[in-house]
Design a protein that fits this description.
The chain has about 120 residues and is α+β, with helices and mostly antiparallel strands. It has one domain. The protein contains 5 helices and 5 strands. It has a 5-stranded antiparallel beta sheet.
């Protein structure tokens, strides 16, 4: 589970379930169905909490406002959205840092033919 300050990551299938539960809970900011239909089948979307329990911890249901980078079909750049995610779904989401440790193995597997430039912005 990612801490509130750590980014989370999920697959298309996981995001569809999260979006369905957000709709059932009548949360304010949800992923429209047409965007869910156009998520990349093999991609991962990245999330970062910007307003933890933005309506208070006693809200029903407890949820966070998150900054989202959604991986869309046939697009190199992510779609940026702000979404509401139930706190219980956030707790079940994988920590992005942990999940991304396996990315070099995936890239070396040959499924993806990608090269990422190394950029060091540290001063």
């Amino acid at each position: 589970m990612p801490e509130i300050v750590q980014p989370g990551i999920c697959t298309k299938e996981e995001l569809i379930k999260i979006a369905q539960r957000a709709t059932e809970a009548d949360l304010n900011r949800k992923v429209p169905q047409e965007l869910l239909d156009n998520l990349d089948d093999d991609g991962y979307s990245l999330f970062s909490v910007v307003l933890p329990f933005h309506n208070g911890e006693d809200q029903d249901p407890p949820h966070h406002r998150v900054h989202s980078l959604l991986k869309m079909k046939d697009q190199n750049e992510p779609l940026v959205m702000y979404l509401d995610i139930r706190a219980i779904d956030w707790e079940k989401m994988r920590d992005a840092e942990e999940a991304l440790k396996n990315v070099p193995l995936i890239l070396k597997s040959g499924k993806y033919n990608m090269e990422f430039p190394v950029q060091d912005d540290r001063k």
